[in-house]
C-alpha cells in the first residue's frame, strides 16, 4: 500500500525534474545565441570600419590626378569608361553593410528555430507525461473493475467478480439470522467458517459454493466488562482482518486462495472465499490413504505420493510468488497443513493470511511484538528473537515437506516417545543414520516412489537448518522439487 501511495509523488517529482532541466536548456541556448549574435555584430562593425579606413587612407594619400590616370589606363581611356568606374566606385562604397545585416538576420532566424524546437519539445514532453499518467489511472481503474476490488454503498467490497458477480448474492449476510441455516465446515481461533451456495443464473449450470469466515470485532455494542485476554483477542482479530484484505485481497496466483469479498457488519466481519470441497491438507493426510493411480483415495480425500508431491510443488510456487515476484515481499508466518486447501483437482491453495506481513525492500527483517504461528512450524530464530524473514517461511515449508513424506505432524504422539524433541531433530537423526525406511509414511511406502520420497526428506532437512543463511530460498526449493517431479 505504501508503494502504491508513493507512485504519484515519484511521478510528480520526475515531471518537475524534467521541466527544470528543459528550462535550463532553453536558458542556455538563449544565452548562447545572444552571445553569438553580439560577437558576430561586433565582428561585422569591425569589418566595416576597417574597410572604410582603408578606403579613406587610399583616397587621402593618393593624388586625385593619379587616381584618374590609373582609372583611365585600366578602362582604355574612353570618356564613358572613365565615368563608369567612378559611378561604380561611388555605388559600391557602402556595399559592405548589407553582408553584415544578412548574417545577423540569419542568426536571428536560427535562434527562433532552436527556440521553437525546444518549446515544442517541452510542450510535447509535458503532454506525453500527463497523458501517460491519465492513461495509467484509467487503466488501473479498469483493472480494478475487471478484478473487482470495488466498494458498494453498503460497504461490501468485491474482490473476485468472476465468483461474486452481483453484490445481491451476499445480501443474506446483512440479515441478523443470515447464517442460521448454513452449514458450519470449520472452527478456528477467529471464529466459525460456513458454507453457502451462490444463486444459479442459468438453468443447467452447476452450483457454486463459497466459504464464509466470520470474525468478531470490537464495536460500540461490545460489553465493557471484557477481560484483558478477550480484548487482546478482539484486537488480534481486527489486525488479522486488515492483513487479509491488504494481502490476498490484492494478489492473484493459482496457488493462493483469493479473497472474494468483504462484508462489514456492526458486530463482525465476513470474509468470503471460494469453497474448496477437498478441505485442507491436514484433513487429507489424516483420512484413509489407500490411493489409486489418479492420486485420489478411497477415503474422503486421502493422498497418494504423486498427489503429495504435486501439493509440495504447488505450495513452493505460491511461496516463491510471495517472496520473489510480489512487491513488497509478503511473509505468511503461519504455513502449516491446516492452512493449505485443496481444490477440485487437488491443486493446493495457500490460505489464512491473517498473520501475513509485508516486508519493504529496504528491510532485512521485521521484528514482531509477540510470537505468532503454530508450534512445530516456527523457525528457531523467530522463536528466540521475534525477528522474522522469508527464511522463516522456508523453515515452515520444510516441516510441511517432512509431514508429507512421514505422514506425521509435529504434534503427533510418536514424537513424545522418541529421544529427539520434535519432528525436525528426529528427521535429522534418521537421515544421518541412513535408515530411510523408518521415516517414510507406511501408507505410501513400497509403491515405487521411495527414491523420490528420500530426496524430498533431504530437502526438508535442508530447509529446516538452524542457521537461516544455510536454508535455500523458495525459488531454489521450487526448482529442486520440480526436478524430482519431472
From TrEMBL:
Q: Which domain of life is it from?
A: Eukaryota
Q: Where are the transmembrane segments?
A: 117-143
Where is this protein chiefly located? membrane
Q: What membrane topology term does the record carry?
A: Single-pass membrane protein
Compositionally biased spans, kind Basic residues = 47-59
GO cellular component labels: membrane
Q: Where is the Protein kinase domain?
A: 179-486
Annotated localization? Membrane
The name of this protein is Leucine-rich repeat receptor-like serine/threonine/tyrosine-protein kinase SOBIR1
Amino acid at each position: 500500500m505504501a508503494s502504491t501511495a508513493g507512485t504519484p509523488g515519484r511521478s510528480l517529482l520526475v515531471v518537475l525534474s524534467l521541466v527544470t532541466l528543459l528550462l535550463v536548456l532553453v536558458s542556455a541556448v538563449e544565452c548562447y545565441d545572444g552571445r553569438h549574435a553580439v560577437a558576430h555584430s561586433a565582428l561585422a562593425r569591425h569589418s566595416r570600419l576597417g574597410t572604410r579606413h582603408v578606403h579613406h587612407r587610399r583616397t587621402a594619400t593618393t593624388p586625385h590626378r593619379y587616381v584618374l590616370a590609373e582609372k583611365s589606363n585600366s578602362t582604355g581611356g574612353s570618356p564613358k569608361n572613365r565615368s563608369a568606374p567612378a559611378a561604380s566606385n561611388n555605388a559600391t562604397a557602402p556595399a559592405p553593410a548589407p553582408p553584415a545585416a544578412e548574417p545577423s538576420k540569419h542568426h536571428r532566424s536560427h535562434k527562433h528555430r532552436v527556440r521553437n524546437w525546444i518549446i515544442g519539445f517541452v510542450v510535447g514532453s509535458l503532454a506525453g507525461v500527463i497523458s501517460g499518467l491519465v492513461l495509467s489511472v484509467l487503466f488501473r481503474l479498469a483493472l480494478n473493475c475487471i478484478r473487482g476490488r470495488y466498494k458498494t454503498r453498503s460497504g461490501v467490497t468485491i474482490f473476485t467478480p468472476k465468483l461474486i458477480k452481483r453484490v445481491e448474492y451476499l445480501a443474506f449476510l446483512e440479515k441478523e439470522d443470515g447464517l442460521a441455516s448454513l452449514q458450519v465446515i470449520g472452527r478456528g481461533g477467529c471464529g466459525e467458517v460456513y458454507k453457502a451456495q451462490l444463486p444459479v443464473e442459468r438453468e443447467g449450470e452447476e452450483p457454486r459454493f463459497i466459504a464464509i469466515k466470520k470474525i468478531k470485532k470490537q464495536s460500540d455494542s461490545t460489553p465493557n466488562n471484557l477481560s484483558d485476554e478477550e480484548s487482546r483477542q478482539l484486537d488480534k482479530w481486527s489486525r488479522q482482518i486488515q492483513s487479509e484484505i491488504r494481502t490476498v485481497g490484492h494478489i492473484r496466483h493459482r496457488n493462493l486462495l483469493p479473497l472474494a469479498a468483504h462484508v462489514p457488519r456492526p458486530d463482525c466481519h465476513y470474509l468470503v472465499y471460494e469453497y474448496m470441497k477437498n478441505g485442507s491438507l491436514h484433513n487429507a493426510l489424516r483420512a484413509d490413504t489407500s490411493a489409486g493411480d489418479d492420486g485420489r483415495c478411497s477415503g474422503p480425500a486421502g493422498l497418494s505420493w504423486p498427489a503429495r508431491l504435486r501439493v509440495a510443488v504447488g505450495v513452493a510456487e505460491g511461496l516463491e510468488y510471495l517472496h520473489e515476484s510480489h512487491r513488497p515481499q509478503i511473509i505468511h508466518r503461519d504455513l502449516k497443513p491446516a492452512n493449505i486447501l485443496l481444490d477440485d483437482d487437488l491443486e493446493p491453495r495457500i490460505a489464512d493470511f491473517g498473520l501475513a506481513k509485508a516486508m519493504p525492500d529496504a528491510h532485512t527483517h521485521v521484528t514482531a511484538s509477540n510470537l505468532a504461528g503454530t508450534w512445530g512450524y516456527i523457525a528457531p530464530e523467530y522463536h528466540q528473537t521475534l525477528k522474522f524473514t522469508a527464511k522463516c517461511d522456508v523453515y515452515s515449508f520444510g516441516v510441511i515437506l517432512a509431514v508429507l513424506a512421514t505422514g506425521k505432524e509435529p504434534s503427533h504422539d510418536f514424537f513424545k516417545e522418541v529421544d529427539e524433541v520434535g519432528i525436525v531433530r528426529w528427521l535429522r537423526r534418521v537421515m544421518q543414520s541412513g535408515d530411510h525406511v523408518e521415516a517414510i509414511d507406511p501408507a505410501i511406502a513400497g509403491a515405487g516412489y521411495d527414491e523420490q520420497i528420500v530426496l524430498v526428506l533431504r530437502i526438508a532437512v535442508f530447509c529446516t537448518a538452524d542457521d537461516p543463511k544455510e536454508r535455500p530460498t523458495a525459488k531454489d526449493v521450487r526448482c529442486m522439487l520440480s526436478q524430482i517431479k519431472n
